[in-house]
């Protein structure tokens, strides 16, 4: 299908072409904003409502949905429904249509089944590439979206990344997620959740710090319950109010508190771009945090290529790429490298600006990613794209194909 046509179909516009087979139905993926690790962007951006992937008639049965809503809420809904044509009352839905299980949803979609088979094999170059996928409609939807874009790994948020509070995970949420991963053959160690952007585990404000620590604890507990092995977060920022050395200690203390109350999950520090007062742009800062963490078996690093480049690591030539990897090894230790974020950079080398670009379209370019894709030290770990969407549509599928095409 031509790109333009496919894009139109995926973005959900009306398509009157006849569909004879269920598997030909387009899988829509949209999101309202691009993932960006930028502090600046965070404030401007609305609540995250990433790319709902719509599998027609595929809402998985969820016990929690059946619970009656509180009376006041129910009344309001009915009123809205009566006065708003765009929001028809729920009872117009056919009552006979039984909701499908996760397995049935996957089995009804040839594309997903194909990917489930692919996931049984070792990927090219032993590189597990995927996208940061949406949890709109349930955590398990991230697994379905991953398969639909041919991801061999995936990233996700564990709850809305713009709110502190979150609805408790139900047993069904956990069950559906694990069943989707099992059916699609995603190993739980190739899944990389991203911590809420609101957190600042280096904060000098006691209230902010407590909120951040509670949030991280909740999220790591979620990983533990889901069976996910890794959890990535941004170390934090001094916000110009404290010394970096104090910030490093506060971050390490936060991690130690969370590790004490959880088990199994490895917490990853993401390298940052040296933007503003953020901590973690320098490898020495990541190393200093790791030094202060009690349980070294449960701490690691996720290396973001855009952040590294913006922080001044030139990964475009073999020599300079090797220099970065050597510095990583000498300063932090390669054994701590557990995951990669694959992003090109809109900003120039050493610009300190955290602005992601699509693979090959930015300042890093394909030469840099060729080095990444052929580095055996990066085998068998999740490599997650967080690149901008084009006209509200993820470009992940093409980028994954491009990246695998670089494997020699
Ligand atoms: Zn990040
Ligand atoms: Zn990142």
TrEMBL record:
GO terms for cellular component: mitochondrion; nucleus. InterPro entries: AP_endonuc_2, AP_endonuc_F2_Zn_BS, Xyl_isomerase-like_sf, Xyl_isomerase-like_TIM-brl. CDD domains: AP2Ec. It comes from the Eukaryota. GO terms for molecular function: DNA binding; DNA-(apurinic or apyrimidinic site) endonuclease activity; phosphoric diester hydrolase activity; zinc ion binding. SUPFAM superfamilies: Xylose isomerase-like (SSF51658). Residues 1-104 are annotated as: Disordered. Keywords: DNA damage, DNA repair, Hydrolase, Metal-binding, Zinc. Residues 10-25, 46-65 have a biased composition (Basic and acidic residues). Residues 66-78, 90-99 have a biased composition (Basic residues). Its cofactor is Zn(2+). Belongs to the AP endonuclease 2 family. This is DgyrCDS6188. It comes from Dimorphilus gyrociliatus. The lineage of its organism: Eukaryota, Metazoa, Spiralia, Lophotrochozoa, Annelida.
């Amino acid at each position: 299908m031509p790109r333009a046509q496919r894009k139109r179909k995926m973005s959900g516009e009306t398509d009157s072409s006849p569909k004879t087979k269920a598997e030909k139905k387009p899988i829509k993926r949209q999101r309202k904003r691009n993932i960006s690790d930028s502090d600046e962007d965070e404030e401007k951006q609305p609540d995250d409502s990433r790319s709902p992937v719509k599998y027609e008639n595929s809402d998985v049965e969820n016990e929690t949905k059946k619970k009656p809503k509180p009376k006041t809420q129910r009344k309001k809904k009915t009123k809205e429904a009566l006065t708003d044509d765009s929001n028809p009352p729920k009872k117009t839905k056919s009552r006979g249509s039984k909701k499908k299980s996760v397995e049935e949803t996957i089995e009804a979609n040839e594309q997903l089944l194909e990917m489930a088979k692919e996931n049984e094999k070792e990927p090219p170059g032993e590189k597990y590439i995927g996208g940061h996928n949406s949890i709109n409609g349930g955590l398990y939807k991230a697994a379905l979206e991953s398969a639909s874009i041919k991801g061999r790994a995936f990233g996700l948020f564990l709850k809305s990344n713009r709110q502190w509070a979150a609805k408790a995970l139900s047993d069904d949420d956990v069950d559906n997620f694990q069943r989707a991963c099992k059916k699609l053959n995603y190993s739980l160690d190739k899944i990389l959740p991203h911590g809420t952007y609101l957190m600042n585990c280096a904060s000098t404000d006691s209230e902010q710090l407590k909120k951040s620590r509670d949030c991280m604890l909740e999220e790591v507990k979620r990983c533990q319950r889901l069976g996910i092995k890794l959890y990535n977060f941004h170390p934090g920022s001094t916000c110009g109010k404290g010394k970096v050395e104090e910030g490093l200690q506060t971050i390490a203390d936060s991690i130690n508190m969370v590790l004490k109350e959880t088990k199994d999950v490895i917490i990853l520090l993401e390298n940052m771009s040296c933007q503003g007062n953020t901590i973690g742009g320098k490898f020495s800062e990541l190393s200093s945090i790791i030094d202060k963490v009690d349980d070294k078996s449960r701490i690691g690093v996720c290396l973001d290529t855009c952040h590294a480049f913006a922080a001044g690591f030139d990964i475009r030539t073999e020599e300079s790429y090797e220099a970065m990897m050597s510095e990583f090894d000498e300063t932090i230790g390669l054994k701590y490298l557990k995951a990669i974020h694959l992003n090109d950079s809109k900003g120039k080398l050493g610009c300190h600006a955290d602005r992601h670009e699509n693979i090959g379209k930015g300042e890093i370019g394909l030469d840099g990613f060729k080095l990444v894709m052929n580095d055996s030290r990066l085998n068998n770990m999740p490599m997650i794209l967080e690149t901008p969407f084009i006209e509200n549509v993820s470009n992940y599928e093409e980028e994954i194909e491009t990246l695998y095409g670089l494997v020699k």
